[in-house]
Design brief:
globular, 8-stranded parallel β-sheet, binds alpha-L-arabinofuranose, alpha+beta, 13 helices
Amino acid sequence: MSTGLYRILWTAVAALSGAAVIAAEIPVKLSVEVGRPGHAVSPLLHGVFFEDINYAADGGLYAELVQNRSFEHADSFVAWGIVNRGGDGQVTIETSDALNSKNPHYARLTVRDPGKGFGLANYGFGGMPITAGEDYIISVRVRGTANSPLIASLEDETGRTLGTAKLEGIETRWKKLELLINASGPATDARLVVLATAPGRTDLDVISLFPKNTFKQRRNGLRADLAQKIADLKPAFMRFPGGCIVEGKDLANRYQWKDTIGDIAERRQNWNRWQDAIESRPAPQYYQTYGLGFFEYFQFIEDIGAEPLPIVNVGMSCQYQSKELAPLDKLDSYVQDALDLIEFANGPITSKWGARRTAMGHPASFNLKYIGIGNEQWGEEYFERYPVFAKAIRARYPDIHLVSGAGPGVDDKSWQLAWRKFSSGMPAHVVDEHYYRPPQWFLENANRYDPQYRNCPIEKTASPVGGSCPKVFAGEFAAHDTGDRKPSLRAAIAEAAFMTGLLRNSDHVVMSSYAPLLARAGATQWTPDLIWFDNTRVYGTASYYVQALYSHNRPDVVLPVKVEGAPVSMDLLPPRTVATYGAEPLPPFKPEFIPTLYAAAGQDKRARETVLFLANPFAEPRAVTIELRGAGAFAPQARAFVLTSGNPDDANSFESPSNVTPREERLALSSATFERTLAPYSFTVLRIPQQ
Ligand code: AHR
């Protein structure tokens, strides 16, 4: 029966008898051409996108426990309190004869009588989590006139001391002191207390406290549990440092990578543009110490075996905010920053920036292969600036692949302009597309990269950077569920369904990443996010497990699939919500029908397994007849990884982190054609071993 006739018949029957029931009963057949492998799957397909939003860096992945360690916040005393145990003195913020010009403020203790201690306490990011038996590294920059030590202690919420260190040898010139404190007991809400013990004047700056146990035990490192949660995704790449943070609210506020390397005392702090980017979620104390800077980023990437993908500012600030542009004749320093970043990553130890990397303990190249020019910039202003960077980078580093933006949305005028440019000579290897849309959009758009819909048809254009036309990077996406944008099972399954299309078309869509990655509970500017954390706990959303299932099961080659069965009426889906992002409103809602089943398949050559990806975003179970064509002999024992919990509104939380997590099943196959019923709102990965 033709699809058209089936649709008419189906619509008529649905009208008479209730669409949901009928849709569930429509038989679906999935044929997988195991004997006719297709194109190779991009090894970079599944990665992550890190941006310092939702306190992802300071107070998040960066393991520093002290907030506002350099007193550089606009309100210098944020997170600090004065401690006076029967003494007499004062604490002031000073700037004269500072540690260095990038770190102009410091705290001065003027103590007339120390009593049992006079000084400062830092309360971290809502209290410091301390683990019994662990070592903590305290370091300070200090100078003073009092010829007596400072006492640094960890105290729990009741004031009980968990460990102390005596900071001795203070001189009248600035000096760094560093000691270990071993914690005698645990605390979730501890503070670091630094007390003078004698009358006199003491200046303090860059007061830092780190757990010794960071990810891979790196100095100035990352929070072990959070870094591990990212590593567990096995991401093929990590895009960094954003996001709008690259752009800044204005150009002065933009991300400048040279501020983010070297001694932490020499990194010029910046305010975070997410302080006021979302009016309803002000975060006035949100700053970037850049402690997690470009060296730490490259090192983390190397530690987890991913590829780096840095994004550089293109001479444009946020187009939602100040829209500030660097004049075209003043782009040189921006371009030079981009070239220097590549040299910092890859340059020989004899080069200026390669030598800086070497001095940081990493003489080997970080093997950077990709660079993003601008975040999600749009319009003619972008396409005047982008080629200046592209030309300079191509001239100096012809092997580096260029990643361009395409604006904040897809299908709108900005995106159309971008693809017109790329189809007519604008040099790019990969174009970064973003879509934050309702779950329905993801169901309607799962085929958007099928060859017939590609916006730069292979036969049409030869790209000046080689190849036929730029590839696609689905660089920021997430299904935004109705109302409160809950990271629900419904949203996750819509993403899983959409990603079957990314995998099937992974000759064209070569990279993808969900966004944003991290969210500190109680401190978010943007939801949903992939991984949530507080000071001691971490959990992945249902969407996290979709990303993990795709990443862990990424095949080497795609196998063609064919779904036979009536398409499903849009009536079966919950009402469409209005998306609130993008330079322009969403285009009108068009499709009337969507596929019955979302499927992709591939072959994992090393494991010698056929891998099927099957998403059922509907409220009814879906019975599927699966035929593995040309399969040859296969082992009867297959494995299924099934993500569902039954209720589309379900989500994970700190209390129930495993509410929606994949469970593994074994299944016995007796023939190359078999039946499988997909649970409502489920995503299934089937791994079938060949013999
Ligand atoms: O992921 C959140 C924001 O969404 C990013 O900063 C920006 O690139 C996009 O608009």
